[in-house]
Structure formats: C-alpha cells, structure tokens
Amino acid sequence: DAGVIQSPRHEVTEMGQEVTLRCKPISGHDYLFWYRQTMMRGLELLIYFNNNVPIDDSGMPEDRFSAKMPNASFSTLKIQPSEPRDSAVYFCASSLGPGPQYFGPGTRLLVL
Amino acid sequence: GNSVTQMEGPVTLSEEAFLTINCTYTATGYPSLFWYVQYPGEGLQLLLKATKADDKGSNKGFEATYRKETTSFHLEKGSVQVSDSAVYFCALSVQTGANNLFFGTGTRLTVIP
User: Fold this and answer.
1) A2 touches chain B (CB under 8 A)
2) What pLDDT tens digit does each residue of chain B (113 aa) get?
3) Could B98 and A56 be called an inter-chain contact, meaning their C-beta atoms sit closer than 8 Å?
4) Torsion sign (Cα): B38, B39, B43, B46
5) Exposed, middle or buried by CB within 10 Å (0-12, 13-18, 19+), for A30?
6) A26-64, pLDDT tens digit by residue?
7) What is the pLDDT, as a whole number, of residue A1?
8) Which residues of B touch A43 (CB under 8 A)?
C-alpha cells in the first residue's frame, strides 16, 4: 500500500493568497484527519471525517480554514486568505474504524 | 475528559543506554494507547499500541505496558541507538464511536555516539 499521500510537500506563499493542501488516504480507510503541528502549540487536530462526512471541526482555527472530502479517496484543506501565523506543518492521517491512525509525510507551509 | 501527560524533554542519552519516557493518561471510557515516533522531517509513525489493561505493545526493541491501576503507558528500550533519535508521542483513543486521538506534547530524544 502506498500509505497516506499528501501534496504539495512544501508550499511557500504570500500573505493573503489562497492555499490548498491535498490528501489521499489509505484505500479502504473510513476515517480521515487533518492536523497542524507547530513548535508553539504542538500537534493539533483540526477536523476529522468519517465516511466523507465531517464529524468534528471544533479544532479549525477560524473561518479562513475549510476542509472538504468529496469522495473516499480525496480531501482538501483550504486556507483563504492565508496569514503568516498559519505557517506550520499540516498532516493528514487515515484509519480503518477505531484502529490506529496512519500519517502522511506532511505539507510544510510557509506564509510570508 | 481525555488527556495525555508526557515526560518533558529533551532527553539526551548515550548509545546503548536504557530509555524510559513516562506517559500517564486520563480517559472517559476504556482507552486504547499508542506510541508514535516522528523522525526529523517526517510524519508520525505508529511505533506500538495496546488495547487493554496489562497488554504489552512492542516493536523495534521498544516496549510499553498498559497499566490501568496507575493509568500509565511508559515507553522503554533497553539499549538505544543513534538512529532512535526522534520525537516520541504518547496518545490515546476512546472507543466511543469517535476515533480522534489525544496526543501528548511529545518528547524529543537525542542519542549521542
């Protein structure tokens, strides 16, 4: 299995621009998670989906952030407009039922 | 609520030293417990897990035992190697239908030759 795939691996953008992060979960997994990791705040759960339906988005920092999962093999996390404080590593993870989560390699975002 | 408290780092050890990273938890319900490892520049990888009391998870020479009486899941390794240098995260999930993980803050381990 290819594991969780994320793109891009690195993104540098300017403040105010729209940023779209992409994730392909492991085939057959029914849960998908988006996390953000920073030095200051550690690892934060932003949102998770079950069978493509958002279950808990209480971790989404503000309305500038949105996430979608149009089908079982694809999800996006969008930031519009981006701000320097959004700079972080964003991870996607997937799991099968209550099993362990498997993480992608992350997208390192830098907003100038 | 659900939370994980992890030993603060950083931890620096010499090669072949014994490693312990402490982890305690509070949980509503009956949790499963995990250790994840993050190598520099990479995502988190599942290292080991335990799903019920007294279970011992093990992988790559690392071990952790699910102790319900002390609500702990300490990570141990008898002889660390330079390649074990990474950040280690303790986590729990509660089997209530939701599947989100509650992570500790992570402990950075550096092993020096």
Assistant:
1) no
2) 889 999 888 999 999 999 999 999 999 888 999 999 999 888 999 999 999 999 999 999 999 999 999 999 999 999 999 999 999 999 998 866 556 788 999 999 999 99
3) yes
4) negative
5) middle
6) 999 999 999 999 988 888 999 999 999 999 898 998 899
7) 63
8) 44, 89, 103, 106
Which residues from chain B sit within 8 angstroms of residue A106, using beta carbons?
42-43
Residue B95 is predicted with a pLDDT of 66
What tokens does A30 get?
């029914």
Task: Report helix, strand or coil for A5.
Answer: strand
Would you list the DSSP string of B50-70?
Answer: E-STT-EEEETTEEEE-BTTT
Cα dihedral across residues A77, A83, A88, A89: positive or negative:
positive
CB atoms B43 and A45 under 8 Å = no
DSSP state of A25: P
- Could you tell me which residues come within 8 angstroms of residue B43 by beta carbon, excluding any fewer than 6 positions away? A4, A91, A103, A104, A105, A106
> What's the number of CA atoms in the CB half-sphere (13 Å) around residue A55?
15
| Residue pair B17/B42 in contact by the 8 Å Cβ criterion | no
Kindly determine whether residue B106 and residue A91, on different chains, have CB atoms separated by under 8 Å.
no
Across-strand partners of A29? none
Q: Which two tokens stand for residue B3?
A: 């939370």
CB B65 within 8 A of CB B56: yes
Say which residues have a Cβ less than 8 Å from residue A58's Cβ, sequence separation at least 6.
Answer: none
